[in-house]
From TrEMBL:
Any one Gene Ontology cellular component term annotated for this protein: Holliday junction resolvase complex
Catalytic residue positions: 9, 68, 140
Binding site residues for Mg(2+) 1: 9, 140
Stored InterPro entries: RNaseH-like_sf (IPR012337), RNaseH_sf (IPR036397), X-over_junc_endoDNase_Mg_BS (IPR020563), X-over_junc_endoDNase_RuvC (IPR002176)
The protein, known as: Crossover junction endodeoxyribonuclease RuvC
Residues the entry annotates as binding Mg(2+) 2: 68
Cofactor(s) required for function per UniProt: Mg(2+)
Species of the source: Succinatimonas hippei (strain DSM 22608 / JCM 16073 / KCTC 15190 / YIT 12066)
Encoding gene per record: ruvC
């Protein structure tokens, strides 16, 4: 069965989403966009995020959910709101029975661009190339797709390691005859 990955780039005003499928050794673009939660009361924005992510899950039937971890900002209020938006999206994934994977911004950039401190335009460029898109995705959607790509690469490496890991007792660090 093909793995379908929903990637989320959380934000209290704009939450990016991206959906890809692992088909053999290729990553295939299925869809992306932004959930515009607006600028109203926070609880209403969180509800908008939750409902929209739930709808995206119904539409694309992902098998896993990947989300960017919260980074610490100098503005504590912004960090708290970002964490709450992230939680609203994660609850939608959890309610759908999806396993949730979390990646730091640095891990995502490293996986997609090869440099953990890459700029947004570099992430957009690489997402466009990796997924063979006809145009550059909007920044929040590109970040969400990058999160999904990061999980796809991580998942592929984990699966490869399972099949190539040595089997047997190697004497706990000593050679045995």
């Amino acid at each position: 069965m093909a793995e379908i990955i929903l990637g989320i780039d959380p934000g209290s005003r704009k939450t990016g989403y991206g959906v890809i499928k692992i088909q053999g050794s290729a990553l295939v673009y299925l869809g992306s966009g932004c959930i515009n939660a607006g600028s109203g009361a926070l609880y209403k924005r969180l509800q908008t995020i939750f409902v929209a992510v739930s709808t995206i899950i119904e539409q694309f039937s992902p098998t896993v959910f990947a989300i960017e971890e919260t980074f610490l900002s100098k503005n504590v209020q912004s960090t708290v709101k970002l964490s709450e938006a992230r939680a609203a999206a994660m609850i939608a994934g959890s309610n759908a029975g999806l396993e949730i994977f979390e990646y730091t911004p640095r891990q995502i950039k490293q996986a997609v661009v090869g440099y953990g401190a890459a700029q947004k335009h570099q992430v957009q460029y690489m997402v466009e190339r990796i997924l063979k898109l006809s145009g550059t995705p909007q920044a929040d959607a590109a970040d969400a797709l990058a999160c999904a790509i990061c999980h796809g690469y991580t998942s592929a490496v984990t699966k490869a390691m399972r099949f190539t890991a040595p089997v047997g007792n190697f004497g706990h660090g000593r050679f045995q005859n």
